[in-house]
Amino acid sequence: MARARRTVRKPTRWTDAEWRRVEDAAPVAGVPALRFVREAALEKADALRGAAPPPAPSRRRRAGDELVHQLARVLNNLRQLQRVAEDDWDDDNARLAAEVIRTAEAATAAAPERAREAAALLAEIGPLGSALNDLAHAANTAEHLPPDAADVLVSVFATLTKFLR
Predict the structure, then answer these.
(1) How much is the pTM?
(2) What is the span of the domain harbouring residue 33?
């Protein structure tokens, strides 16, 4: 059965705080933020008219699967930062990035077995992942690490280490 194509666009406006709430909740649900908004709106509409919501799609990611996906994105950014540091002869940050990469790889390997703890890490890794992505973009553009790189790397390391305990 072919799925209906989504063609209707309805722009909305959010405050920073409102959108942060959505971005914090979406990874816990295992879906991207915009899909989270669409599904929440449809669930509310069904509830208000007394209809039963449709069954959840079978392809929805579980928290452990979503964590593996997010950690893969984190690893991609970490590897970019390590490469920039190495290219810039920034040995201290290159070593720090390498250690965070090892920790992220260990967290990725542990994620499927620790699915119950995945939601908590997803809530923490979301904002850190965004900061890491911004940092990698800035580093790739400038061809050197920004001054706050070590702070972000240490925060990611601390969060991942806490998950692995």
Answers:
(1) 0.62
(2) 16-48
